[in-house]
Amino acid sequence: MTITATVRSPRFLSGLAGMCMLAASCHAWSWGHTGHVEISRIAIEKLPEELPAFLRNDFAAATIGELGPEADESKTTGIFTGIDPKFGIQTTRTVHDQERDPGHFMDIDDTGIVTGGKVMLSMLPATRETFDTAERAGGQTQYAGYLPYEMLDGFQQLRKDFGMWRAFKVGLLTSRKESDRKYFLTHLALREQLIIRDLGYWSHFVADASQPMHVSIHFNGWGPFPNDNGFTQDKKFHAQFEGSFVRNFIDFRKVAEAVRPYTDRGVSTNEARVPLYLAETLSQVVPVYQAALSSGNDNYTSAKPLEVAIVTQQLAAGASELRDEIVDAWNQSTQITVGFPLVTVADILSGAAVVTPATFGAD
């Protein structure tokens, strides 16, 4: 039996409006191509000197910038099955899309409760498994949106990448045998490529989380909720906000200027940091809608000052958070373990553990 899925892109968003009212998982591509490229690029350009030089150059910034939209570009992996006159291109439903697409958002209500009514944003379970278990108790599942877990997953991979890079660097500097030096030189170069790829792909989700409609039940027009302010129900609202408006009216020099200084948000782990970041973004949902209302119901179709200001602010928030989490991953990478049997990166750096190719290649 063939299962069909409709392409979800800004072009078809208005056609999907009726479906979006019923399905919490229906979202547009956050920030569009332009916004994702620029958030990722600016974050790299703002890295401090403590980060390795292979990340702090124009090539790395440009490459990671172009990888920023990758998680959106890899959507819709099914085989073409035909064209629906209402919804456009149809494709087979795939494991890839069903598993990955919900990682771009999390629908949170105005009291801070995740869709399903069982989980508070401020008390997210430690893993996707436990989150899914809690959501099922409320008649929902993780597939209604698990953005923070996509962020945590990518952060932990980057932290591991940095730990491996540190270990390979020590191995290259301390090896006496030419064959060992060649091993570490090869793996150092390979790890740098992996870091650029892993960081670039993960950067997409950190950027998603700065788009207020990607963390809210009000994700495309205010929706079927109390609306005393008279906020728009325009079904093009989401796509206009993050797509054509960003491309046509945002000055990314001003976005870069608005990037704030590094902050640890007063916590020591990424598990504690991510909910604080999402809560900060969630607090901007009403201002996003209010800016449109106060601009004569412009709904992000022209360069109204209030609308330009809040979009600039949120793009800068994404770049700021991404820069900060990269720094945190680097700093925390001394605390993890690598190799087999496991040794700590801190012991390798201090010389308490001697690193050789066998540290990584033992069977």
Strand order of the largest sheet: 1-3-2
Number of helices: 16
What distance lies between the first and last C-alpha atoms, to the nearest angstrom?
Answer: 44 Å
CATH class: Mainly Alpha
**Oligomeric state of the chains present here:** single chain
Q: Domains counted in the coordinates: how many?
A: 1
Shape: globular
How much beta, percentage-wise?
A: under 5%
**Uncertain ranges:** 1-28
- Helix-strand pattern: EHHHHEEHHHHHHHHHHEEHH
Please give the CATH architecture: Orthogonal Bundle
Overall number of strands: 5
Helix proportion range:
40-55%
How would you state the average pLDDT, rounded? 92
Radius of gyration, taken over Cα atoms and rounded to an integer in Å: 22 Å
CATH domain topology: P1 Nuclease
Helix/strand-derived category reads mainly alpha
Main attributes of the structure:
363 residues, mainly alpha, P1 Nuclease, two-stranded antiparallel sheet, 5 strands, disordered N terminus
Would you write up a description of this structure?
The chain has 16 helices and 5 strands. It is globular. With 363 residues, the protein is mainly alpha-helical. The protein has a single domain (4-107, 145-335), classed as P1 Nuclease (Orthogonal Bundle). The strands form 2 sheets. The chain has a 3-stranded antiparallel sheet with strand order 1-3-2, with no helix packed on it. Strands 4-5 form a two-stranded antiparallel sheet. 52% of the residues lie in helices and 5% in strands.
